[in-house]
Amino acid sequence: MSDVKLLSTPVPPGGTIGILGGGQLGRMLAMAAARLGLKTHIYSDEKDAPAFQVCDAHTVAPYEDEAALAKFASVCNTITYEFENVPAKAASVLATIKPTNPNAKALAVAQDRFDEKSFVTGLGLKTAPFAAVNSVDEAAAAFARIGGPSVLKTRRFGYDGKGQAKVKSAEECKAAFASFNSVPSILEGFVSFDFEASVVAVRGADGQFAAYDPAENIHENHILARSVVPARLTAKQVADAKAIAKKIADALNYVGVLGVELFVQKDGTLLVNEIAPRVHNSGHWTIEACITSQFENHIRAVAGWPLGSTERHSDAVMENLIGEEAADWKALAAKGGGLHLYGKSEIRAGRKMGHITHLKPRSS
Amino acid sequence: MSDVKLLSTPVPPGGTIGILGGGQLGRMLAMAAARLGLKTHIYSDEKDAPAFQVCDAHTVAPYEDEAALAKFASVCNTITYEFENVPAKAASVLATIKPTNPNAKALAVAQDRFDEKSFVTGLGLKTAPFAAVNSVDEAAAAFARIGGPSVLKTRRFGYDGKGQAKVKSAEECKAAFASFNSVPSILEGFVSFDFEASVVAVRGADGQFAAYDPAENIHENHILARSVVPARLTAKQVADAKAIAKKIADALNYVGVLGVELFVQKDGTLLVNEIAPRVHNSGHWTIEACITSQFENHIRAVAGWPLGSTERHSDAVMENLIGEEAADWKALAAKGGGLHLYGKSEIRAGRKMGHITHLKPRSS
Q1: Which of A10, A314, B162, B317 lies at 20 to 30 Å from A269 by C-alpha?
Q2: Nearest Cα residue to A278 out of A9, A19, A13
Q3: Would you call A300 an interface residue with chain B, using a CB distance cutoff of 8 Å?
Q4: Mind listing the pLDDT tens digit for each residue in A231-279?
């Protein structure tokens, strides 16, 4: 990929960060960039993307529109994105015009569950047992190896529980594969774990690395409901979690913030569940509890600035506001926490509408 | 003023806050509104106002353009401003169309130093000695009463030390008055004080009141250089400072954030120096050290929302970045604090370019 543009000098105040994607993550990235005196240009295929309300300029066009992408890239100093499912072609069009981070390798790994798990185990890190399922025969063979119950997932574009099926037999595994229209899939073994945690980390353009304290995450209906910091982890587990994130970030020559989702087993073992090459929902608490939020650190990294501190001055509990949970905004506003509403015009079931963060004095 | 529109219901998420003024205060107000899912429309007479970079919509027009003001008001749910020198005519045009806060009385009091001091002493609060100077004869009489050295100031539109002259005799007082083109002025006696402090407070549409802990302020060249929280005040002085702000806010039937600048005398007496009917530079530390910043609380108040907590979770030192102090932004970014750059395209001497806030664990 000799055509990829690398960031040679930091983007100065007044420069423009291009952000692909105009949802709440793009919105919070834009607000973080503005704190630093940087302008943002948001590119989204949605007409009323929430991030348009807080940016200097925006483009509405499909992610496949190469002319629009090229025009967008031409007016930005550097480019990033708020979601991992950026079409590879779009990313490569952008990357030949302006520095684009996180890089193509990070995107590729995060877009394919099998490649992701293979990459992670290749680094000597642990995951749940897994096997590729590219045919009906492989479905049966994979089940024979992994056992049940286990979960068949499509390799690509899985999000918040869509494209997943729990299977208890080889027959169910084959049927699930067929129900996915036989797209390349992965069978993952169930692992018993105590709780889920995540570590949000940042790697700068110069390789500088920093990680926030891991959060303990509670999911409901396959959507993050709550993140609690500190997580119930020993000092060694905290250090291990950060080391896992560093190993991944270094191996990807990553620039920006990444989230690494972990399963914490009863015996203390940390298994890598997923890599998110972007700011992460479980890192929203950093807005209130750290001097530099995950959003600002992502902007600092992709703009070539020195990273900000990831130190936590307070304990935090972040609660997502999903669908109707955001309807009574007056009651939420009176609750006393740090309330964030995402500027979405319509409440829909399962839609992330906002979040609220409560702080407590730092306990550990 | 029976034509004034009052806020009868809160502005819901998705509603638009109109902000007159597009400098750093308007910019930080817009970002605070966005956190709550509110849109902002910025009105400024400057073509490249910094706040335009973070708002949903903007208008460029003179503050005297009544048609533009009316059009602006028609697309907003409620209106506020970032500076106190809003032309009275502009404020009254807006207030007949949409709720406009802080109200006309607050503006009038803050725009005239003599009215301001008269209002404050009328509440039983203390100020430096003062006298009106509307003629050469009054200049001499005022000096005879107040003594010297003292400071002659124009009654209106003083800002960061402009339109002020130190006088040591009746002759100097008369000459200074003439040098101000004989505009209505005020002679203020020097008072000895230990340090300057300020209290930033907020009053909701329902009369609810809350105040942040007072800051100790250090000025250089008549511009705020640094605010330190907590100030060197006793618990009683802190309570007194907040009570002063409450008395003023209640008397004005004020809605929004106001800053009250105080002189702290050696014997502990608090003198009111100035009222700022807006978010205040000495309250910028609240972005990092409180769950609800002064900017968000101003938006909450003018939008008719419940106020957020003014509690301080950390100690803070806020340093303004004036003129060339913002030039080495790479070094500032590496300093580890909460860095804010205001998106101003040109560094000029004396211009507020940004600020940086450092936190420490709460000491008291």
Answers
A1: A314
A2: A19
A3: yes
A4: 999 999 999 999 999 999 999 999 999 999 999 999 999 999 999 999 9
